[in-house]
């Protein structure tokens, strides 16, 4: 009996000790650690993204304009060639001979004209003494005119022959990059042949992209109301994920709508000195307002949503957490633009929001770089 009382006393003292320690342990539990960032005024200009295609300003297949065997190829495939550069040479012997033949005919025609002029002048002198009839003078005048007409015709033939001779030198019509040559020395080429080489001008260069008519009309209406500027910066994201270093300018907006896609075509021009943009490449196009737009914004990760809409967790006085409903106007560059619900400088939780509830006290640390 006495042993039972002793055991009960030991258990009672142990239980009391445990109960006295438990509240102290609960009071010493650390506050949840969170990361916060301030709601800040920043320049977040409105932007829109589109899928665009790089289009060369000039791209032609260079063809032969006269027939003949190819004698020389004067360029390297893939090289940049200046305007007027000699690309191919076609054998020109027959064309030179044609020019010489016509020059000879012109010489003979000029001699005939001189003789006709002499005959005409003689007849005009003789008619005054009634030695020859008027018909003889008329015939002499006609012979002079015929000789002059023959010379004019032959001069036209000579110009045509000289033009054909010049076509034996096939030159670059503009500065560009030469593609693969479809022919080699010795090939028979002519007007009916396929393109000998494709020449592409890459600097400057165009980027075309479709814009939905709804978005275009909204932009026009806002611009007319003065809510946004009419000009925009044009930036490109390349297929490898890098940003193209040069900004472009819009130089064309289509006046008709594509029936199949309900879009209009917009075109921007870019300087391309290093040929980073190649004809046919698909790129990401970003249009951004040129005018500053100072707005209140918080990091995008601070925005939470439930059935009632968007909210953020604000750390206020005494490090206590408050749930705050906000109106998010738009999101861009990792920031959410806040139209209503926050003031500049208020601290919102960006990391650790899942660990807290409204009214809790937290251990808040600023975000890196904040």
Automatic annotation (TrEMBL):
Source organism of this protein record: Sinorhizobium americanum
InterPro entries, per the entry: MdtA-like_b-barrel, MdtA-like_BSH, MdtA-like_C, MdtA-like_HH, RND_pump_MFP
UniProt protein name: RND family efflux transporter MFP subunit
UniProt domain Multidrug resistance protein MdtA-like barrel-sandwich hybrid: residue ranges: 59-190
Stretches assigned to the Multidrug resistance protein MdtA-like alpha-helical hairpin domain: 100-168
Principal localisation: other
Ranges of residues in domain Multidrug resistance protein MdtA-like C-terminal permuted SH3: 295-354
Annotated ranges, domain Multidrug resistance protein MdtA-like beta-barrel: 204-289
Subcellular location: Cell envelope
SUPFAM superfamilies the record matches: HlyD-like secretion proteins
Gene Ontology MF terms: transmembrane transporter activity
């Amino acid at each position: 009996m006495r042993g039972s009382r002793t055991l009960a006393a030991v258990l009672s003292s142990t239980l009391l000790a445990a109960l006295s320690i438990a509240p102290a342990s609960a009071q010493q539990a650390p506050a949840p650690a969170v990361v916060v960032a301030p709601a800040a005024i920043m320049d977040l200009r409105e932007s829109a993204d589109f899928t665009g295609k790089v289009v060369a300003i000039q791209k032609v297949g260079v063809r032969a304009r006269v027939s003949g065997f190819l004698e020389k190829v004067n360029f390297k495939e893939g090289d940049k060639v200046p305007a007027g550069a000699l690309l191919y040479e076609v054998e020109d012997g027959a064309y030179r001979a044609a020019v010489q033949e016509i020059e000879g005919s012109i010489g003979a025609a000029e001699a005939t004209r001189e003789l006709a002029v002499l005959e005409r002048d003689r007849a005009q002198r003789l008619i005054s003494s009634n030695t020859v009839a008027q018909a003889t003078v008329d015939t002499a005048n006609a012979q002079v005119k015929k000789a002059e007409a023959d010379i004019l015709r032959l001069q036209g033939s000579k110009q045509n022959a000289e033009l054909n001779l010049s076509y034996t030198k096939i030159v670059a019509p503009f500065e560009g990059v030469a593609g693969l040559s479809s022919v080699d020395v010795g090939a028979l080429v002519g007007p009916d042949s396929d393109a000998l080489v494709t020449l592409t001008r890459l600097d400057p260069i165009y980027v075309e992209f479709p814009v939905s008519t709804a978005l275009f009309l909204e932009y026009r209406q806002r611009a007319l109301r003065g809510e946004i500027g009419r000009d925009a910066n044009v930036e490109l994201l390349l297929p490898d994920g890098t940003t193209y270093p040069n900004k472009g300018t819009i130089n064309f907006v289509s006046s008709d709508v594509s029936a199949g896609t309900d879009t209009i075509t917009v075109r921007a021009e870019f300087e391309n000195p290093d040929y980073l943009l190649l004809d046919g490449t698909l790129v990401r196009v970003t249009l951004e307002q040129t005018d500053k737009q100072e707005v209140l914004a918080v990091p995008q990760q601070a925005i939470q949503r439930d059935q009632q809409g968007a909210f953020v967790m604000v750390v206020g006085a005494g490090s206590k957490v408050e749930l705050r409903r906000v109106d998010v106007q738009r999101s861009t560059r990792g920031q959410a633009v806040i139209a209503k619900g926050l003031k500049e400088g208020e601290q919102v939780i960006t990391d650790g929001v899942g660990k807290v509830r409204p009214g809790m006290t937290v251990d808040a640390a600023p975000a890196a770089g904040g």
